[in-house]
Amino acid sequence: MENQVSRFVENFMAEIKSRNPAEPEFYQAVHEVVESLAPFIIENPALMKNKILERMAEPERVIMFRVPWVDDNGDVQINRGFRVQMNSAIGPYKGGIRFHASVNLGILKFLAFEQVLKNSLTSLPLGGGKGGSDFNPKGKSDNEVMRFCQSFMNELHRHIGPNTDVPAGDIGVGAREVSFMFGQYKKLRNEFTGTFTGKGLDFGGSPLRPEATGYGTVYFASEMLKTKKESIKGKTVAISGSGNVAQYATQKVLEMGGKVVTLSDSNGSIYDPEGIDEEKLEYVMVLKNAVRGRIKEYAEKYPSAQYLEGERPWSVKCDIALPCATQNELNGDQAQILIDNGCICVAEGANMPSTPEAVKLFLDKKILYGPGKAANAGGVAVSGLEMTQNSMRLQWTSDEVDEKLQSIMKNIHAACVKHGTQEDGFVNYVNGSNVSGFIKVANAMMAQGVV
Ligand code: NDP
Questions:
Q1: Contact 213 CB / ligand 1 (< 6 Å)
Q2: Whose CA is nearest to atom 10 of ligand 1?
Q3: Whose CA is nearest to atom 29 of ligand 1?
Q4: How many CB atoms lie within 10 A of CB 395?
């Protein structure tokens, strides 16, 4: 069986690489999933015969377009826009939009591929997609961001809709960008529908959507800890990033009695051994969301903190690590340092933040490791709840949404335990999330024929 599995993985990856040149992040995401699923697929010849996994690794549709806009100096700028509509077997395409200079087709395909399994795990009727642009919002004026978003939507509006494809935010796309895109969509289509999630509360947004990914990640970490009769209370937590996910993960850790000692951005990290309390977090939220400043300024304001220029926060002693910035931000060496420092739990708020070497170490050392597609699924889950509220034309309370979010995160955890528990009792959340996310999509694809 072992030989058969490695042959299956090797052949599958050879085909992926030859069909999708120069897309390393996409290979990485697919490889992890194929490794998990190979034994399951080999045991189910119908899945093999119907080429379910092969079809899942081929986007149903990719839209790629020019996004021209005029900057504040009157100069014409040209960016590239994308939407990867990966899989609609169980619902309309759903997934965020990323604006970052690094965005390319391969990165969006990795994110869209992960999104399909993640959305299935939420148990809501959501297909998977992802989009974005190599536009960098940093340093741009509000008017430049608005003109860019409008130009981006001038093309994208043709391909999305409440029953077709419902985008949301991601890196570089927060409330401001979603609002500009929604406004332009509404103007072009002359309709008010729930085509975006993460909208403002006054125009169809769901309570708790901004908080959902960060909160959900901490709920998931808490579920994992419970399996070891542990909890967040009293634990020291290292968090990376300082954007949407990092901010609300910090808030929930504080609420649950933990101590957060790090945050970061793409220039460096801050380490505050006294802990980032509520007042300091409020400062970070204003700094990042309104002033759009750098995390370095935290260390200038609070003398208890150190600024680690150009460094990730993983060298700091902690019990729990929550990577909440970006892909491949935690490598094998850093994973080893975390383990040596006594870290017992890693829950990924970001998508694929741990390199394959880091993941292997977490699994070999049998620490609690929650991969992004399970741990950060709270964001898209509340997006799904926003879609429901939009269809019903009503708005739930924050408490109602929080209750549903907690229950969804508990169910995802239970599904991972069901499909990922090894003979020795260790829960391999990678296998658990991949297998349980896959089953529902595969069943739907089998039922719907070769389409
Ligand atoms: P934001 O844009 O709000 O914040 C991103 C943070 O990560 C910023 O602090 C940013 O720093 C940092 N960052 C981005 N790129 C890099 C890089 N290359 N190296 C180091 N730091 C970097 O994005 P989100 O918080 O929304 O997203 C964070 C992660 O969570 C992403 O992986 C995203 O895909 C994932 N995610 C987000 C969801 C959501 O609901 N928003 C849902 C599920 C997953 P800087 O300011 O310097 O760019």
A1: yes
A2: 265
A3: 350
A4: 16
The closest-lying atom of ligand 1 relative to the alpha carbon of residue 265 is: 11
Six token digits for residue 194: 């729930």
Task: Please give the average per-residue pLDDT across 20-38, as a whole number.
Answer: 98
pLDDT, one tens digit per residue, over 157-195 is 999 999 999 999 999 999 999 999 999 999 999 999 999
> Is 130 labeled as catalytic in the residue annotation?
yes
How far is it, in rounded angstroms, from Cα 357 to Cα 201? 41
Residue of minimum CA distance from atom 42 in ligand 1: 379
How many angstroms separate the alpha carbon of residue 405 from the centre of ligand 1? 21
pLDDT > 70: what percent of the chain?
100
Enter the tokens of residue 44.
């189910």
* Ligand 1 within 6 A of CB of 378: no
CB-based contacts of 119, cutoff 8 Å, min separation 6: 90, 91, 94, 95, 126, 127, 128, 377, 380, 384
pLDDT at position 223 over 80? yes
Give, for ligand 1, the residue of 266, 281, 354 to mutate: max count of ligand atoms closer than 8 Å to Cβ: 266
Decide: 115 and 94 in contact? Cβ < 8 Å.
yes
pTM over 0.85: yes
Residue 1 binned pLDDT confidence (cut-offs 50, 70, 90): confident
Contact 383/233 with Cβ under 8 angstroms? no
pLDDT above 80 for 401? yes
Q: What are the CA-CA distances from residue 321 to residues 314, 362, 365, 380, 384 (Å)?
A: 8, 12, 15, 22, 27
Work out the mean pLDDT of the chain and round it to a whole number: 98
CA angle 282, 217, 328 (to 5 degrees): 95
Phi-psi bin for 296: left (phi > 0), alpha (psi -120 to 50), beta?
A: alpha
Q: Catalytic one among 94, 109, 118, 130?
A: 130
Separation of alpha carbons 319 and 349, rounded Å: 16
On the question of pLDDT at 426 being above 80, the answer is: yes
Q: What's the 446 CA to ligand 1 centre distance in angstroms?
A: 35
Helix axes of 105-121 and 24-42: crossing angle, nearest 10 degrees: 40
pLDDT in tens, 124-169: 999 999 999 999 999 999 999 999 999 999 999 999 999 999 999 9
Q: Whose CA is nearest to atom 20 of ligand 1?
A: 266
Contact criterion met (CB below 8 Å) for 368 and 225: yes
Token pair listed for 157: 């509006």
pLDDT at 2: 80
**Residues 37 and 53: beta-carbon distance below 8 Å:** yes
